[in-house]
Design brief:
The chain has 516 residues and is mainly α. Helices cover 73% and strands 1% of the residues. Strands 1-2 form a two-stranded parallel ribbon. Strand 1, helix 11 and strand 2 form a beta-alpha-beta unit. Helix 6 runs antiparallel to helix 12. The two termini are 26 Å apart. This is MFS transporter.
Length: 516
């Protein structure tokens, strides 16, 4: 087939869009619940509902967005314009969603709840309107299989950089801007900074990318027919199931690991760990260092740990080490899929992830260096799957075109988006259901022995079971290396015969015109 190489600038520019999305996504995953309880003053149940229902709405809206995107026709393409159109509303609503009503306004509790629910729902809707078309772009920027994997590797390096920034800088910035004001002001200013960054990154993505792959026959079928045709797509079905398990695992693991490090890991051992890194001081006044200003210094001594921030510092180091490892391994593993095939990489890596996750159950509370080592090992075996799996979603879109002669990339990615958000919602809920149902978890007694055992089981054995389920789903996906290459070659031949080769048009501003 004809090669369609992408320039470094285009790959990097495309990756900026997902970096922007993760400034919102990781803020939601890490901080939004506590923001609603601590800053808005809502009860835990009310805050959970405000987080759950917009996310479920977001999942339902994704397929609708897929239909709209597949039927969008502009001189810039089908998907790329949505990144531009949503960039300014995204930034505005992001600030509003993290602006707490001032008590001086005299709002009732019901009004505060309504404001939180409406702004969060708007933010999630804009997330779908932007991120679903953005994700689908990877399937139409190039038809070259290896270039797609490289493109998604760039994308997920940027994702991890954004996650590193959000996880490491958000709370220190909130505290900084809260000085002389309050936490609400700190959150508003901090999220305004992230919102401006989102706007700039989205514009970079729009102006540096192109859509090249056009359908051989433009779709004139109904959304219902598109979905019925998808039900005949075996690889898509396997990937939908995989996505539910994968993102359910991520959300469950996030809550489980937080509790594992805060309530199971031995605080004295963690203190010795951070002390070895020079991150402790007995001086209550602090060290005046940059690390201290960012909250990374543990104040006090080894016998004063009950109310210290030692677990926060250790947990942050663990997370940063995993993220940094993931970035390096993603960059180093770009050529693996070309050699072994995406499906094989996914199966082997998720199989190894199953083992590393289960091994966590064997660690005693004071084995903090082993915890770090196992976390880094898990990041090493997990990282190659990140770009590979998103490339496989584009392969599933190719498979539909190969089967039916019609391409509906937006519907494929929209339904994957539905599975992703459903997995996130179910993962968080399942963690609480598991603790309550099997371990008698009481939120008022988070350090009870039964609760601690629940954190330990969820962090290891349950996460391992979900990794194993991902492995099975990929084994059921028949798009191995040979099938994918044959499908790609046949589609390239069809496009050449139809006169819509991906590199054959270059008009005006560099975009491929898409006409009905």
């Amino acid at each position: 087939m004809k090669s369609q190489p992408l320039s470094f600038i285009e790959k990097a520019g495309y990756s900026c869009g997902d970096a922007a999305a993760n400034l919102v996504f990781m803020s939601m995953i890490l901080f939004q619940l506590n923001f609603y309880t601590d800053v808005f003053g809502l009860s835990a149940n009310t805050a959970a509902a405000i987080l759950l229902w917009p996310r479920l709405w977001d999942a339902v809206f994704d397929p609708v967005m897929g239909v709209l995107a597949d039927r969008t026709n502009t001189r810039w393409g089908k998907f790329r314009p949505w990144v531009l159109w949503t960039s300014v509303p995204w930034a505005v609503v992001m600030v509003l969603a993290y602006t707490a009503p001032d008590p001086a306004w005299g709002w009732s509790t019901g009004m505060v709840i309504a404001y939180a629910g409406i702004t969060n729902t708007l933010l999630m809707t804009l997330y779908s309107m932007n991120n679903m078309p953005y994700s689908a772009m990877s399937g139409v920027m190039t038809a070259d299989l290896n270039e797609r994997t490289k493109l998604n590797s760039f994308r997920f390096v940027s994702v991890n950089v954004a996650q590193f920034a959000v996880g490491g800088l958000t709370l220190p910035l909130v505290a900084k801007f809260a000085q002389g004001a309050d936490r609400a002001h700190g959150w508003q200013v901090t999220m305004s900074i992230w919102a401006v960054a989102c706007l700039v990154l989205f514009l970079v993505t729009f102006f540096t990318t192109r859509e090249r792959v056009r359908p051989i026959v433009e779709s004139h079928t109904s959304p219902k027919q598109d979905f019925l045709d998808l039900l005949k797509n075996g690889p898509w079905i396997a990937l939908v199931a995989y996505t539910v398990f994968q993102f359910g695992m991520l959300s469950l693991r996030g809550g489980a690991h937080y509790n594992y490090y805060h309530h199971y890991a031995d605080k004295a051992a963690m203190f010795d760990f951070v002390a070895a890194l020079g991150l402790t001081t007995p001086d209550a006044g602090g060290t005046g260092s940059l690390a201290d200003s960012l909250g990374y210094i543990v104040h006090g001594t080894r016998d004063q740990l009950a109310s210290s921030n030692v677990a926060d510092v250790f947990n942050s180091i663990i997370n940063m080490a995993g993220t940094a490892t993931t970035i390096v391994v993603i960059m180093a593993s770009m050529g693996l899929s070309a050699r072994f095939g995406r499906r094989a990489i996914g199966v082997w890596c998720f199989g190894l992830c199953t083992l590393t996750a289960c091994a966590m159950y064997l660690l005693p509370p004071d084995a903090v260096w082993a915890m770090l080592g196992l976390h880094i090992l898990s990041a090493i075996v997990y990282a190659p799957t990140v770009a590979v799996m998103w490339s496989m979603y584009a392969d599933a879109a190719d498979y539909s075109e190969w089967q039916t002669g019609r391409r509906f990339t937006g519907m494929v990615f929209a339904t994957i988006g539905f599975a992703l958000k459903a997995g996130l919602a179910l993962g968080s809920a399942s963690f609480l259901w598991l603790l309550a149902g099997l371990f008698g978890y009481d939120t008022q007694a988070p350090t009870a022995p039964n609760a601690v055992e629940g954190y330990r089981v969820a962090s290891s054995l349950v996460v391992g079971a979900l990794f194993a389920a991902c492995t099975v789903c990929l084994l059921l996906n028949k798009l191995d290396k040979q099938t994918t290459l044959r499908m790609s070659d046949e589609l390239a031949q069809r496009r050449r015969k139809a006169g819509v080769d991906g590199d054959d048009a270059n008009e005006g501003n560099g975009a491929v015109p898409v006409t009905a």
